[in-house]
């Protein structure tokens, strides 16, 4: 599959831009023989490097179209096939190559020595007894450096690989027994010369093959969950404990005998007792996530066997990014919560859509330290090659930019879409080729269709484009979902809403100053406090302004708005069930309670504080005139009594400790829809009534900075 990268972010990784270049008709994967099938592609890439003549319809001129291959996106076995580097055995890391720190531990290989990446004088280097190194040795080694493409090419050129023979079982290399240099058919730098080196620029590319964050995250998450819940993929078995004793490390975890003569495995810091597992799984079972966030996790919980089953890659992704640390905290299920929270925050920062290059060194130091801390707690068997690869991910971000343009998610999704074309199981390739061609043809035609729904203008899942956004004050216009009913707002709510709008309108600032000066002059004999002034505003300002409405000059745009605001809110409005704005979907709590998803959580940031709440009602109100406004009426948690913050960033809230009931005139239950950010809550299993906050990011919203013109459609290029 080819992905053209000179497209804006909202088109770049979309299926409509993918080009299916190669389809290999085989029952099993081609393995190292993939190069044979890649030859036509490489030929075309060579041609594109020198350039082909193309016609630019926009300028009406011919030009030389050139394109290089930037990198490949592949899973880890795919990495080996495309790069010709080995991703198995002791030298499995395609970046550390023959310096991959690895050793045999019991029946497994462990990828060790994360202390090599620490500064030379770091105290951890001489605390051998706390880490996983055999016999608790200290670590003074240096971290391996990334080899250049030229280095790899020089080495791979020595390898003799015969294509079409990869069905024969690969020769097992024995450690410590090197073949004679001249006759070896596999160098330390891999199994073959990668065909991509035929491209003259390939050896100079800094990042040739991407380590796929999607699969790495999935594997790390499976390692953790498997070990915590002692599931099939547990990295803590009886054999591992035996191997610990053989290595003379972590003596507190060696197998021992209990009083009645049986063998027992002492619990490690991460071990969960039966009740702890149940609490943890209970939290996961009760979770309701926002619409479009991820699949329903509760269906993956098997309470009977105390296991998580059928977790997909994306489930592992949301677990690692957000839910795991919160669910562990909400169930107080293990002693390594903070450590796992650090790992989770690493993944979150790594996968964020915008990254500041200056933060990357800090992120790298963070993951090195986190891995060292993990080494203190977990057994060597936990450190599979996938865990080792974490250490290289930040460098790849430095070289290649944000992860979302370099990982397998869009590709895996598209591959499964291609599979859906298969109607004739005897000839799947034919079906895929036909299906793709048909789609490509339709896609091509639809570029030239205007005013019709095509693949290029289908609405997003969280589409909030509306035809008349300027009618709404404070950018509060969005898309209404569900039923709407006409209502008459009670007097108090009307005043609360009106006051909220006035206090946030810059156009009214002058009037407010005038009002306060007038009031102060009337109260010259009494000392005026701040609370007096806010009481005046609450009780009198609206009425005072309304009396002025006839004197306001409405010939300018500003004046028109001022006049409308002064006139006051219309008491009739619309009550909405749901609303989509800024890429978020909000539903009122009574609608939400019938659903398996959670869309009423709201967060608003004001004056450096974050306020958490739940959307109770959504109103669309209007001023006499042309201006409308959409307001959310919410229950707000008291920021002093109802919010607890954890040292590493987690927040807990309690909805029995509200800021106010909203029933008094001075209460302030409203916010503009445009201010709202979405969160969702996870119930705590131990402290009843407390909810853990998870922040939710909008989908398909791109931060383009201020200087770029926003151009939505693909156009006809
Ligand atoms: Zn490595």
TrEMBL record:
Tell me the ranges covered by the DUF4218 domain, including all copies: 350-462
Q: Where is this region: Disordered?
A: 143-186
How far does the signal peptide extend, from start to end residue?
none
A Pfam family per the record: DUF4218
Q: Which residues form the DUF4216 domain?
A: 620-691
Which spans does this entry mark as compositional bias, Basic residues?
161-175
Q: Which InterPro entries match?
A: DUF4216, DUF4218, Transposase_21
What's the protein here called? DUF4218 domain-containing protein
The record lists the organism as Spinacia oleracea
């Amino acid at each position: 599959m080819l992905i053209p990268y000179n497209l804006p972010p909202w088109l770049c990784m979309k299926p409509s831009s993918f080009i299916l270049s190669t389809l290999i008709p085989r029952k099993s994967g081609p393995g190292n023989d993939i190069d044979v099938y890649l030859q036509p592609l490489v030929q075309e890439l060579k041609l594109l490097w020198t350039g082909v003549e193309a016609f630019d319809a926009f300028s009406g001129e011919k030009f030389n179209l050139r394109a290089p291959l930037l990198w490949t996106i592949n899973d880890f076995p795919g990495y080996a096939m495309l790069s010709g580097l080995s991703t198995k055995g002791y030298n499995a890391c395609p970046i550390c190559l023959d310096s991959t720190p690895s050793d045999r531990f019991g029946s497994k290989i462990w990828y060790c020595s994360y202390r090599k990446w620490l500064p030379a004088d770091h105290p951890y280097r001489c605390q051998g007894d706390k880490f996983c190194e055999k016999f608790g040795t200290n670590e003074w080694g240096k971290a391996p450096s990334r080899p250049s493409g030229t280095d790899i090419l020089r080495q791979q050129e020595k390898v003799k690989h015969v294509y079409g023979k990869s069905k024969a079982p690969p020769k097992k290399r024995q450690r410590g027994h090197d073949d004679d240099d001249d006759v070896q058919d596999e160098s330390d730098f891999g199994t073959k010369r990668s065909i991509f080196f035929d491209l003259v620029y390939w050896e100079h590319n800094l990042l040739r093959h991407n380590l796929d964050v999607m699969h790495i995250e999935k594997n790390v998450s499976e390692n953790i969950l498997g070990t915590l819940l002692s599931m099939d993929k547990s990295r803590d078995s009886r054999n591992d404990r035996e191997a610990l004793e053989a290595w003379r490390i972590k003596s507190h975890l060696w197998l021992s005998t209990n009083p009645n003569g049986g063998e027992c495995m002492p619990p490690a810091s991460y071990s969960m007792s039966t009740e702890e597992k149940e609490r943890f799984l209970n939290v996961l079972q009760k979770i309701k996530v926002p619409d479009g966030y991820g699949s329903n996790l509760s269906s993956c919980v098997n309470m009977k066997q105390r296991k998580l089953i059928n977790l997909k890659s994306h489930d592992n992704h949301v677990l690692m990014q957000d839910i795991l640390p919160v669910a562990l905290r909400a169930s107080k299920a293990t002693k390594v919560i903070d450590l796992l929270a650090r790992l989770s925050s690493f993944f979150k920062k790594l996968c964020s859509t915008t990254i500041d290059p200056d933060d990357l060194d800090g992120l790298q130091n963070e993951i090195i330290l986190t891995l060292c801390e993990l080494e203190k707690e977990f057994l060597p068997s936990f450190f599979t090659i996938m865990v080792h690869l974490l250490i290289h991910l930040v460098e790849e971000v430095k070289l290649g930019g944000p992860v979302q343009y370099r990982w397998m998610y869009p590709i895996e999704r598209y591959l499964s879409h291609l599979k859906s074309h298969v109607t004739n199981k005897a000839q799947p390739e034919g079906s895929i080729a036909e299906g793709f061609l048909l789609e490509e043809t339709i896609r091509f035609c639809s570029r030239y269709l205007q005013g019709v729904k095509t693949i290029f203008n289908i609405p997003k899942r969280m589409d909030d484009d509306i035809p008349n956004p300027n009618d709404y004050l404070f950018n509060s216009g969005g898309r209404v979902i569900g039923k709407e009913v006409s209502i008459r707002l009670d007097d108090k709510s009307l005043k609360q809403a009106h006051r909220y709008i006035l206090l946030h309108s810059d156009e009214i600032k002058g009037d407010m100053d005038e009002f306060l000066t007038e009031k102060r002059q009337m109260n010259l004999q009494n000392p005026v406090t701040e609370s007096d002034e806010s009481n005046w505003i609450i009780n009198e300002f609206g009425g005072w302004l309304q009396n002025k409405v006839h004197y306001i000059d409405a010939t300018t745009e500003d004046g028109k708005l001022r006049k409308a605001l002064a006139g006051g809110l219309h008491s009739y409005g619309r009550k909405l069930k749901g609303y989509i704005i800024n890429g978020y979907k909000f539903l009122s709590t009574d609608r939400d309670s019938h659903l398996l998803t959670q869309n009423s959580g709201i967060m608003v940031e004001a004056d450096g504080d974050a306020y958490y709440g739940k959307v109770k009602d959504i109103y669309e109100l209007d001023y006499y005139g042309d201006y409308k406004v959409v307001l959310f009426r919410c229950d707000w948690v008291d920021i002093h009594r109802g919010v607890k913050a954890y040292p590493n960033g987690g927040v807990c809230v309690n909805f029995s400790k509200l800021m106010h009931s909203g029933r008094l005139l001075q209460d302030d239950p409203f916010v503009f829809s445009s201010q709202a950010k979405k969160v969702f809550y996870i119930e705590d299993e131990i402290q009843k009534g407390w909810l853990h906050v998870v922040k939710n990011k909008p989908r398909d919203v791109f931060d383009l900075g201020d200087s770029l013109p926003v151009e939505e459609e693909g156009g006809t290029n």
